Every structure is written in structure tokens, then in C-alpha cells.
């Protein structure tokens, strides 16, 4: 199982990005479902009720399953529940991909540490932080510790909502992100308009 862990503040575009990632992974995985349509090749675990819903019905036919863990925050009390869920999924289906949407308040790198320590069958894990370009300035004033802390430990950063930004403002934010995390690859995206398959291919299939 390969795990993609999406974090970032509420409204940043995690669910919108996840839907795009799911579509890419399902379309680029023709063999997995063919043998057994009952076995999902991709499972999405949701830990946040947001504006954008994951429409299970649309993607189910294509080998996707959605699990919801809404009873708490997976960064603290529910990290163990997430690990249990991952281990159950591994034993029941061993899906090729698991996508986890963390709540906006979580520090996903802490969740990643728990999964690394206690998760079974996890071949790889990428911590993808979605940054809200439109609210970057505001959020770094209101909750600097949280949004900057999430960015600092990301493996990949999606600077989202570029469709409603001026290029100069975007490059300022990008510099800021790079300063906070010099090693993470930064992708400037619009989940609203669609994230292209070249980006997904490099971001999630790269370095394998
Ligand atoms: N303009 C714009 N809006 C976006 C973009 N991505 C997401 N949104 C909107 O932002 C809101 C929150 O998106 P959602 O994916 O639910 O964010 P989440 O809370 O991080 O899961 C929704 O109204 C989306 O339609 C984008 O690239 N551009
Ligand atoms: Mg969401």
C-alpha cells in the first residue's frame, strides 16, 4: 500500500486535490480492478467534513472505496484509530493506494510518524500539504505556527488556487514556502480548474 497523506488548513483545497488524484490513480491503474471488481485499488480516508464532498458513487465503480473517520482529529486521539483502519484495510484488501485527508488542524508529519511506526504493509508515504494561496497572508497572521509548521515538514507542497492570484503575489508566496521548507518540491496548482496528469505523475509516481 502506498499512502498519500493530504494536510493543509480547512478550505485550502485538500478534497478538491484528492478527487483529482483519485481520478488520476484510478485511470492509470487499469489492471488492479480488472481481476476482482469487489476489491478497491484505492481507498480514501476522510477526517474532515469540508465544503467539497467526496462523491463515493462516482468513483466506486472504478475501484474506489471511501472510509470516514469523523469522530475526532487524527492528529491526536484518532491517530491510533487511523493506524487500526490502515491495518484492517491492508489485511482485507491490500489496496494499491490509500489517500488520507487529515483535518486542517493536524500536523500531518506527526500522523506520518505514527503510521511509519505502527502501520503494516505501508510501502511508501508522502505528506502533501495544500497551501491556500488566496488566504496565505491571512492565515500566516492568524495561525502562523500551524500553517508554517505544516509546510516545514511537507514532502510536497501544492500551492493551490493560483487561478485567483496575481503572478507577483504567487511568486512571493512561493519564496516564502521555499524558505520554510527548502527541500520540498512546490507545485503551483488550481484544483478547481484541474491538476494535470503530468503533475500527478511526477508528484505521486515519481522516485519509485
Ligand atoms: N478558486 C479556487 N477555488 C478552489 C480551488 N480549489 C478548491 N477551491 C474551493 O475552495 C473551497 C474548499 O475546497 P475543499 O477542496 O473543500 O478544501 P478542503 O477543506 O481543504 O478539503 C471549495 O469551495 C472549492 O471549490 C482552486 O484551485 N481555486
Ligand atoms: Mg476537505
Entry keywords:
208 residues, alpha/beta, Rossmann fold, 7 strands, binds guanosine-5'-diphosphate, binds magnesium ion, Zinc-reg_GTPase_activator
Provide a short characterization of the protein structure.
This protein has about 210 residues and is of the alpha/beta class. It has helices spanning about 15-25, 30-35, 55-60, 80-90, 110-120, 135-140, 145-150, 165-180, 195-205, and strands spanning about 1-5, 40-45, 65-70, 95-100, 125-130, 155-160, 185-190.
Explain the overall architecture.
With 208 residues, the protein is an alpha/beta fold. It has a single domain, classed as 3-Layer(aba) Sandwich (Rossmann fold), CATH 3.40.50. 43% of the residues lie in helices and 19% in strands. It is built from 9 helices and 7 strands. The protein has helices at 14-27, 30-35, 56-60, 79-92, 108-118, 136-142, 144-152, 167-180, 197-205; strands spanning 2-7, 42-46, 64-68, 97-101, 124-132, 156-160, 185-188. A 7-stranded parallel beta sheet has the order 3-2-4-1-5-6-7, sandwiched between helices. It binds guanosine-5'-diphosphate and magnesium ion. Guanosine-5'-diphosphate is lined by residues 8, 10-16, 50-52, 160-161, 163-164, 190-192. Magnesium ion binds at residues 14-15, 48, 50, 52, 101. It holds the Pfam family cobW. Residues 3-186 form the CobW/HypB/UreG nucleotide-binding domain. One of its GO terms (cellular component) is cytoplasm.
